[in-house]
Each structure stands twice: as structure tokens, then as C-alpha cells.
Write a structure and sequence with these properties.
about 140 residues, alpha+beta, five-stranded antiparallel sheet, about 40% helix
Length: about 140
């Protein structure tokens, strides 16, 4: 089990714009899973139970649902239902896990969807790696 409080305490000491929200509820997480038709990975669930988004990189449960449902309706790109988006860079690009419709998240790798070129680019080995790289300007 990841200690997200320790990770975010370190990050917020360097970046005062990170403002973690109060924790999500089990029901909010369950609602996301029902709305999107797939299970959230354990590390994302743990993070959301510690803080429901960080007002910068990580989306809240509501934003996860809205972003994924909206992205899946876009018809100007290759289908985006193969990624479960959990965050964004503020410029229109999203970060997410690869998913399958039957099984949910396939692995812990994190990809960025580049909205300008419709590229899916590997960025990190897992959620913790992605968060640390993002806030250390490595992705």
C-alpha cells in the first residue's frame, strides 16, 4: 500500500500550487467504475481515498468520469476507450492507463495522450512514478 501522504507532503513543500482535495468516498470510486465500465487500479483507488484529486495533475473522481466519457465521444481521433484517464497537464493532454473493455486496466504503465497529434506515448512505470516525474519536470 502506497503512502500517498508522504509523497504529497514532499511535493507540496516544493510546489505550493498543489492543493489536495479531501478524500473520495468508496461510493464515489464505485460510481466512477460503474460509469466507465471498468475497475480502477488499486494504486489510483488508494490515492483517491487519500485525496480526491490534487487540483493540478490528478483528477477528482468526478473529473475522471467526465473526462473519460467525453473523450470516448470524440470522433476526430482514434478511439480513446483503450485508456483510462486519471490526470492531465492543463494543455489538453491526458495521462492514463491502458485498458481493455473486459478486464479493466491491463498494467500499471502510464501513457500520455497527445491531443494535437493523437499520439499515445509511454511516460511512466506506474502512478507513483508518473506523479514524481510530472512534478519534477521529467515528463
Amino acid at each position: 500500500m502506497m503512502d500517498w501522504h508522504v509523497i504529497y507532503r514532499e511535493l507540496t513543500s516544493k510546489h505550493n500550487y498543489i492543493k489536495p482535495n479531501p478524500p473520495a468516498t468508496e461510493k464515489q470510486i464505485s460510481d466512477v467504475e460503474k460509469s466507465l465500465g471498468c475497475k480502477l487500479p488499486n494504486d489510483l483507488k488508494e490515492l483517491l481515498l487519500d485525496m480526491n484529486g490534487d487540483n493540478w495533475l490528478i483528477f477528482s473522481t468526478e473529473q475522471i468520469t467526465e473526462t473519460n466519457l467525453s473523450a470516448r465521444k470524440l470522433d476526430c481521433f482514434m478511439p480513446l476507450d483503450c485508456l483510462l484517464f486519471f490526470g492531465g497537464n492543463g494543455c489538453g493532454d491526458y495521462y492514463g492507463y491502458p485498458i481493455t473493455s473486459q478486464d479493466g486496466v491491463r498494467n500499471d504503465n502510464v501513457f500520455m495522450w497527445d491531443h494535437e497529434y493523437d499520439n499515445r506515448i509511454w511516460k511512466a512505470n506506474n502512478l507513483e512514478d508518473a506523479i514524481k516525474k510530472y512534478y519534477n519536470d521529467e515528463i
